[in-house]
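request received
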Amino acid sequence: MPRLVMKFGGTSVANLERISNVARHVAREVEAGYKVAVVVSAMSGKTNELVAWCKEAAPLYEPSEYDAVVASGEQVTSGLLAITLKKMGIPARSWQGWQIPISTDDAHGSARILDIDGEALGGSIDAGEVAVIAGFQGIHLPTRRLTTLGRGGSDTSAVAVAAALKAERCDIYTDVDGVYTTDPRVVPKAKRLDRIAFEEMLEMASLGAKVLQVRSVELAMVHNVRTFVRSSLVDPEAPEMANVEKAGTLICDEEEIVATQMEQQVVTGIAFSKDEAQVSIRRVADKPGIAAAVFGPLAEAHINVDMIVQNVSADGFTDITFTVPNADFERAKAVIETAKGAIDFHDVEGSTDVTKVSVIGIGMRSHAGVAAKAFEALAARGINIRAITTSEIKISFLIDAAYTELAVRTLHSLYGLDS
Amino acid sequence: MPRLVMKFGGTSVANLERISNVARHVAREVEAGYKVAVVVSAMSGKTNELVAWCKEAAPLYEPSEYDAVVASGEQVTSGLLAITLKKMGIPARSWQGWQIPISTDDAHGSARILDIDGEALGGSIDAGEVAVIAGFQGIHLPTRRLTTLGRGGSDTSAVAVAAALKAERCDIYTDVDGVYTTDPRVVPKAKRLDRIAFEEMLEMASLGAKVLQVRSVELAMVHNVRTFVRSSLVDPEAPEMANVEKAGTLICDEEEIVATQMEQQVVTGIAFSKDEAQVSIRRVADKPGIAAAVFGPLAEAHINVDMIVQNVSADGFTDITFTVPNADFERAKAVIETAKGAIDFHDVEGSTDVTKVSVIGIGMRSHAGVAAKAFEALAARGINIRAITTSEIKISFLIDAAYTELAVRTLHSLYGLDS
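response:
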């Protein structure tokens, strides 16, 4: 019998009515013949309440105690869902992270999963008992202390459990019904993707399509866990829910996509992020080691640098442009000013009023001219490109924020993504 | 270094301000040189909320899942108190029941403690780290499922931990400052007892002085755990708090009381319970096996029978009077009516408008005439006694409820308990 992991987030289990709805989703899959493990988050708002208490008790709270407090939220949901399933006549039991155990390192508050013992868990679900697993948490076995995986950790729990159980699929239920070619609020013609490759989803997720945590997609890619994003808000017994092909977006291996599509799409989606700030250093003396002099101090200050563009040197001087998260803009400029002695430049300037727009698709590997088409189309709309970076499966443009929607719509049409 | 267990209930940890107050109580004892383990309940109201969710999810909820849900309340408090202590510079860590472990049977919802491993726990506190223990909970080791001990279980947790740690004392902090000779709301002259024997406390607790769970007193008696009832509402740094002799009531072995008191009090306290109903069966044919015919069916119906009085038989018939909890009154009468074929009686009557008043004292063992004095005094006040039962250390009277306060005051004065 195939095994299935289902994951429900905080809004899907916000109250007992919604938990009952979740139970009906589970019932559908049990009836379809799956051996089911369900991973649940804390009821919406609970984690925030618990975190607030820790902060009120001590702004610099002990992380291991924070974990003991916060992990209680998922514990409650797991018990309540198990109770609800049993009322419906479905054998079920709750599993806390430490009971499985889900073994993690001791980085309290943002622990990483080391290993999941799928033995007892798998035996239990194969015997017909739905496992209701408290997400977001684990145990550091040497100290027997509770750990949590950090915000959004329940997605990671679900994918890791699916890998340990060798599940056929990991269904992530969320408040959207899948991954779209771009944000439908910006492009009403955006359409849901039936499938997207792990690599593409990683770019989509890290570029602002906040459907899944980047970390859980990485884990799914490494262990080749077929991860299916679908809506928890629809009627669990609606006919379309039984047809998985049409109910959401499957995140899977590139080969599975190639095998199922007659002709490969060149571009899969358009992502954008407004959380960008541009920093430009003007007239930098162009000498060996200059990049290290600039980016070393930024790394030491734990500032995450994304796009980096350095113009070809003219008359011994060059300009260096890079982007940082909006929140780090002022700090980044200050770091560069402080390092002026080592860098030797004319001045630093920049803007937080910029957006990064990215064109993503594994099909770009085998198609030339994808970038050139974009340059033309953006130029035709009078959109100035401040910086460009490319990788094998994406092209990113930094543009003025005011042009965000126009650029996204233009590129969405250009690559034939309008429905 | 002596070890000390401190226990704080739900109202003492109802919010972060009160938790901070609890931390100051702990700080005082740490400074006094104790190696401290603290047992905490869930924040006031939390357990009720969790129980309500379980009932809403399914009126006949699975007890093991109920335990998983409800045990989370104490988990939160233990983490928050540990955070607060560390902020004050006091080394501390939280311990969940399963981490110690506190091993219980699998009677989910009302589990009994089988064993507590004091090894790691004792080592930790001896090394100077305050142990903050989630009360009310344990683990059924064979299944690794969470268990809870039932309402008021945190008192039992505290006494059991004190026994496992061979603690010098188990301090139960509550919203009263000790055990009184009777309810001060009824008798303003009631005074706090410095000491009370385990056996006396058992009678006081089960008779309505709801300071401590009967079960925790039984456990304290069996393991000879000196249990000290004191107030959590006073200023933790108040001078009188350092003088344990004057800060509450010590529940201890009879010998410790005898050794410290010049002259033994005959009566220690007057307890009363309004949660009584009297059932009388009139003109029962007095033949062998009649008691079994009456009380067998009541036991089968899980009705708890307390006082039993059977008059001497006259003309082959007798009257049988017994008491049951108020809530079981109608059911008890119905059970007797149903058994009429087997019992052979004239009719069943009774009243819920009765009170049981008890005179308690280990000194009664060596003093004659204690009961006779009471009969005289009550008669002089015109109080009719419906039934009497006695044991080695108590005399109980069943009287009309209207006379409760008068009877309690009369007996309180009679035995020299007025302050």
